[in-house]
Amino acid sequence: MNPISSSSTLNSLHKLADTCPYDFSPPAGGAYTDGFLGAGGDLTVATLLHAYRSGAFPWFDEEDPICWWSPEVRCVIVPSDFYPSKSLIRTAKKQPWIITTNADFDAVMNACRAPRRDTSKTWIHDNMVLAYRQLFKIGAAASIEVWAGMPYDSELIGGLYGVSFGSIFCGESMFHRRTDASKIAFWALMHWAHECGIQLIDCQLENPHLMRLGANLMPRDELLESLQDLVMTPCLGISGASMQMPCIDLTNSPK
């Protein structure tokens, strides 16, 4: 496994982030009540890295200016706190699915950007795809894929992607084409994060599904304080790593 988040690589990411001219600190008195920090800037590698190490992330429709967010309450999960449901364990035991890391980042992003059933819009538009593809190329983003059978020779049925910086992983989006496939991807993230030294998963926004899987709510001030250490702590990480396992192996992990 390639220690992509080694000290030298992490230092390089911080040097890139240091060139960003923008300030993502919450305004005096805190960010606006909905976590909106402001609009503008760009989606260069330097800007994105500085945003994530500052606890901010971009989220906007394609026709809108770039909007930056830092919610007052953040949804997070410690990998060791994840507990799969009994039904998910049954799925992992009976399905022949294979899980990989970083096998097809572009395919995962393209699947995640597909409009949901209740809307024709997607926030993962062309500019976002190009931006996160650049993060992936420098080892600051990663994907997890769930395949119906052997990788590449079978359908990609689920997955997720996110930004990896030091010992924190910021989940961006996930998708599924078969029931439970995205949950298996999330379980695999917890498994490999625990193995590779990732201390915290930032899920950004609360939703009931994540809360049932073991996520907690963390005040923004607490997250920002934790980030000071997390983004400076090198770990093996999953960015740049090429790992593979059948989903049944998840049921043999300690968690």
From TrEMBL:
Q: Which domain of life is it from?
A: Bacteria
Q: Which UniProt keywords apply?
A: Acyltransferase, Cytoplasm, Transferase
Q: Where in the cell is it found?
A: Cytoplasm
Q: What is its EC number?
A: 2.3.2.6
**Per the record's keyword annotation, is Transmembrane included, yes or no?**
no
Q: Name one Pfam family in it.
A: Leu_Phe_trans
SUPFAM superfamilies of this UniProt entry? Acyl-CoA N-acyltransferases (Nat)
Q: What does this protein do?
A: Functions in the N-end rule pathway of protein degradation where it conjugates Leu, Phe and, less efficiently, Met from aminoacyl-tRNAs to the N-termini of proteins containing an N-terminal arginine or lysine.
Q: What is this protein called?
A: Leucyl/phenylalanyl-tRNA--protein transferase
